[in-house]
Each structure stands twice: as C-alpha cells, then as structure tokens.
User: Fold this.
Amino acid sequence: MHLDNASILRAAEWLRSARHVVVFTGAGVSVESGIATFRDSGGFWQRFPPDQFANWNGLLKIAAGKPKLLAEFLLEVLAPVAAAAPNPAHRAIADLEKHTRVTVITQNVDRLHQDAGSTTVHEVHGSLFEIVGKDGEFVRLLSRPQMQDIVRSLQRAARGPLTLPRLLWAIRSLYGPGRKVFHRPSIVLFGDAMAEPAWSDSWEAARECDCFLIVGTSCVVMPAAMLPHEAQMSGASVIGIGPEEGRADVWLRGPAGEILPRLVRAAFGQQTQCPNSLTQPNDRACWSDNPGT
Ligand code: APR
Assistant:
C-alpha cells in the first residue's frame, strides 16, 4: 500500500495542533474486527436488501412469514458483533484522548469504540447492546458475553424447525424482564429518528471542532453524512481515511487499522529514529519525544 507521506505529515500536523478532534466512523472502522460493511461488494445489504431488512415493518413481516430467514439475518448481524474485539484503528482513536480532546461520532452499533477505551462516543444510529422500552427509555446495557449467549441460543434454535415463538424465546434476553413490554436494541433503522441526545451533541461537536476525521464510511446515509461538510464550513480541517477516496482536505488511502496508528504516531509519536516511510528530502527531523521540535 503506497501512502503519500506528505499527506500523512500534513494530516499529522493538523491533528497535533487541534484543540478538539472529532472522529466520524462507519462500518469500515470495524472491518478489521471481522464485521462486514454494508455497501462494499458482498456487503450486508447485498445479502439482505434494506427495503425488507432495514425497517421495522419489513422485519415484522419476515418474522411473521419466514422466521427461519429472520433467524439467519439476526445471526449475520449479531454473531460477528458478539465475537468482535477492538482493532488497532479503534485503539488508535482511543489513544488520541491522551493528547487532545476527542469526540467520537459513530454510525456503528457494535460498541467497539467504548471497548477500546474511547470515553466520548455518540452512537447516532443507536446500539445493539443498549436495550430500550417502547418509548425509547433506557432499560439496560447488554455485555458482549450476554450477546454471545444470545447468539448461541439463536444458533441452537435455528438448527431445528423454527417457529416464531421458538425464535422469540431464543432471543428473549433482548426483551425486558417479564416481557410485559416490548423491549428492543436502540438501533436506528431507515425511517427512524436519529438517536438523541447523540445526534444533537454530534452536530454541535462537528461545528465546534478544528479537526474532523472521516474513518470507514461511504458518507451516503443522511443526515449523518452532512457532518463532514458542517465541520468544514465551520473551519475544521477534514482528514479522510479508507481504501476508496472520498471528499476531504486530505485523504489517506488504506485500511483504518494500518493508517490510524501511523497517523497518531506521526502526530504524537515517540519515534526516535526516522522510520523510512516518513523521511523525504525536505522532511523535518525525526519525531522525538517532543514531537513539536
Ligand atoms: N478501513 C477503512 N475503511 C474501510 C475499510 C477498512 N479496512 N474497509 C472498507 N472501508 C470503507 C469502504 O470503502 C466504505 O467507504 O468503509 C466504508 C463502508 O461504507 P458502508 O458499507 O456504506 O457503511 P457506512 O458508511 O457505515 O453506512 C452508513 O448506512 O445502512 C446504514 O445504518 C447503516 O450505519 C450504516 C450507514
């Protein structure tokens, strides 16, 4: 992977001089944790068309008519997330907090930023782990081991003939105690309102930050996709990271799990000898423990 070193040095400069960094992430940041994206070839929506699977009416229709297909869909969603762990991209984003103020705005529902140690995370599309009541009120937070138990229960149920009651019993941990009220994960599907206060806080952070990183998102789903433009209009430098170039002041092409650790090291690194990848004729001296020197 060739990465233009001038770009990484430029991006590192912006990161180092920033007072407030926003990191805006999508499915691509979790690819190296084993979770598929939605729109890449072979992506999730190619296997499960969003018009049927990405809205509550569609899901209820499938539940009523094809419980086995719903079980297959749920396993495709839950199993990789339950088994996932933060990758170097999530950890580099969490490490940024040692150097500057960081707000993570994520479209993902996998809680990997929190597991990596990020402390300010706005989940604008909700979370698979946060269980809410019928009015959206918080009920409880599932742990990743509890999610793994749900996946095992679902796998057992899916082995035999699967009726809807058997399927609902298999995923009963997603429901509240007593199952008097329909509880569900707080995920935001198409047609739903964005998660609050996450969305309002994200909009404010995009306007207030001075460096905005786009990591692993196609930036096609509104209104979240408006955030980079809002940040840029408010004067922030916008850095993009991902294998396919998008709109940004500088784009670092490649997988987030490789680029982000290099970028954070280049900005704040404890590099004592010049790594070949960062030297160039007019380059500054190697990064020392005082990266500003
Ligand atoms: N590192 C960084 N980026 C990657 C990697 C990687 N290893 N692999 C893929 N990508 C990039 C792809 O190039 C693409 O730009 O991640 C992006 C994934 O785009 P989508 O699949 O569209 O996912 P996302 O942008 O998160 O979708 C936004 O759409 O369906 C809704 O609610 C869903 O939150 C989701 C929203």
